[in-house]
Write a structure and sequence with these properties.
Length: about 240
Amino acid sequence: MKILGIDTSGLVASAAIVVDDSLVAEFTLNNKKTHSQTLLPTIEQMVTMSGISLEEIDAIAIAAGPGSFTGLRIGASTAKGMGLALQKPIISIPTLEGLAYRAAVSDRLLCPLMDARRNQVYTGLYRMENDSLVCVSDQEAVDINEIISKINDLGQDVLFLGDGVPVHQETLAEKVTVPYHFAPAHLSRQSAGAIAALGRVYYEQGKTEDAKDHRPVYLRQSQAERERAQRLAKEAATE
């Protein structure tokens, strides 16, 4: 079984190929270039270097959101286009679940944090049970203090990872009352390898969709949508 993984949900652009239980190739860039510049060339180079053609792929696993609105749209349009052209199914992976899967060998509570600005994070809580990733608290967009309160209430040793960690590190240090740890650099950001590996699990469980049906998961409105809603509310109030 060959799974192509794509993750453009954050600053990292990542593509990978997993064959059965082996990560055959993974290209990851975290250099602030736009995903529209890097994603397709990365996939093309990975295919060339690995010797595995896109026609051989059984399915395309994509980090479906939440995350950067622009990044998710680029990833979704790329996955959909390839899926339709190659007649391959899409495996939609929740972004936070894929990020937690990076640390799937840990026996700690796993808390991925993605910076959502305005003191908010995209986050969820996970743990490994019987070699499977279990969702303790589903992914959501919340104030950083809300997820800290939830973690403290659970009272378990926790591992933080994601680009939200450096943004909120001082708050975590001040307010987390349980033992906590931060993932090392090579495990702390999104990875298409994790998306593809988890995609293989989803594929075997029959969790696929037709490429034409795939939609990103945003969890909240974009800034433009929020500003439009505020403007309309002000206009309605003055009428």
